[in-house]
């Protein structure tokens, strides 16, 4: 017989949950008198784990059957209550980062990883946006265009020590479709789509915003470290519902202590809609995971082997509501299925003074991605079918007036990562060293069939690409070596700590015509921290530390950047459309361009920062100033070529005299030249960031167990072009009867500057004796500024149709033709515009019911304050956004 009481009052504790861990696992509950009978449990040795709200966890070895009654007295959870965080906590690591634990995630009630970002300095609660790709944008103000996706592409996600690599994802319909369905769902060159990451199996997240360890690379912005649950957990299920989505997940963790073996399994399903009344636009996510860990204790070393098998699929769907449109055939579906297998072997040495551990990792992932788009095409006029695969002038046919087009994009990205890491320790001198040395190999390849459609039934009449098999694209191999020394020394009452690292890498698989082929680049990184002597203030220690860092962070190009599709330009030379199909004639000039940029370089971000941390009586304050300078981000830029063709006069042949199809030589024609453009990836984006991040976290106020957390950030982010660019003269300007005869060369910066200041005040109360956690937050965006950078509007030079370059002079600005190369901007277009305060109040509550049920709810924008303001003598009235709410229930079996 087992009895459970309190240590202070000897009162019985009813309904306490007990887990017995042995060859099998048992989950039991004490009765109303705090008692439990083990007569139904087989004899043997067990580990007893006891947890109850408001009390410290209890654990001891137990032999059944019991020889005598067992009395367990639990201690109230008083001291550890200050360690309960339901907001992000600034890490004690030397790199500037935020740590988010399981308790915080449960209280936040996220649907995807996107919701987690609310907890960061500068974060803010937002409604889910699950109908489009959710890229990450750390330490930045504003929502820039896709030309600045390097912010998201340059953020590394590392799950259980294994990097998530999306370099081989090329799922795109660019050049094949005019539909916007895929534009907001295109994940290629964006990095990780945070919609695809569920949070139910995550134990801890560390978001490194500062200078990361040299162990992590192929990044520019930051690192997201995700650690998932390991070891025993009861069967549990979670059901969440909000205004846009429904989520269900289930999980279980097993532990065999005798064999030192752990296994965790979980699965989840998310179904989201654009709005509750629209059943035709949706997003779905299915995920499943099996994670195992086995430990061997030997005389000289401890061996830990882990194996993770993950599956996930995301489905974007869209089709026309038959009650609102006659296009019953139009539909879009994008499905991404991923299988991931990771293996890790860690060896911890017991008898070696200098070698602490060895770590060997392999990570394989394979995805089956498929886009299917069906569209009803209806020609508005006599449109020509452009489907030639060869360059030059040729006869073409007219497109069918109406047909159904089917476009399929088949992508099969595959990645293979291997890594070996050694940790070395030298602690026998005053200067202590913790050294990391490692090598890493990353291989990316796409085995898909690519874009597929019937060339006679194209998705659009203005094709700029043709079908291409992805498996024809070479694989991409990145080879890396890194070394890092984290050293520390005490000098009197001072303590100095530094993390000095270097990372060298090369793309070894590129064709030698690429500038990056076998070119070795180096990223140096350094973090330092100075812990000042402790000062006694009112009998308690006041601790202060100063820190700083500098680092270079590099992102290599992706497969689609290095090996883009050919660009096809089809110019109609003759469109002779008669009433008799037998006498119709179409003639097209096709030009083919290879937009491969063999001079493309890596994108590099130089980052430095310094800050301070203060702690006193469990009160913590941190502030950090940073600057980031990225000059060579990836973006599509326009390049122009002169195309020569013949423009035939369709009126030069009288259709009334025809009995058969005419010949092209029957028509009179005029030779012409024009400038035409195509897109090529360049290192043309500039992103400059600077700002201040701050966090204050108080000790919990005794009696009400309430913590006050204040965090926020001031950001200035400048998005700009870093390379000169070209623009043609407007197409409606006629020069000697011809168009597109001049090409302007511009050095004006084309970009915007954004600035914002926000503060989040959170009051959270943790009342374990009642099983209650609730929080209220006041999130204030004090202001948001936007300003377009000044542009003169005039080129520095121009090219005529023969390719001759001329300087652009003041006289050209008044020329009847060349003046059209100058863009005239409005009077106020370069003014700074400020949007004033946008304040919202949010509320969250979680209730534990009898240890087995956890009920939660949240309301965002319970109250809002968005006052009207003036801009250019015009009053702008902002409507308060409606509240957004949801609830969930979790059950432990």
TrEMBL record:
Which GO molecular function annotation, any one, does this entry have?
A: siderophore uptake transmembrane transporter activity
Q: Which domain of life is it from?
A: Bacteria
| The keyword Transit peptide appears for this protein | no
Which GO BP terms, alphabetically? siderophore transmembrane transport
List the lineage, top down.
Bacteria, Pseudomonadati, Bacteroidota, Sphingobacteriia, Sphingobacteriales
Q: What are the entry keywords?
A: Receptor, Signal
Taken from the record, one Pfam family name reads: Plug
Q: Write down any Gene Ontology CC term.
A: cell outer membrane
Among its keywords, does the record have Signal? yes
* Gene3D superfamilies with a match to the protein in the record: Carboxypeptidase-like, regulatory domain, TonB-dependent receptor, plug domain
Domain TonB-dependent receptor plug: from-to ranges: 95-221
- Name of this protein: TonB-dependent receptor
> By its UniProt entry, which SUPFAM superfamilies does this protein fall under?
Carboxypeptidase regulatory domain-like, Porins
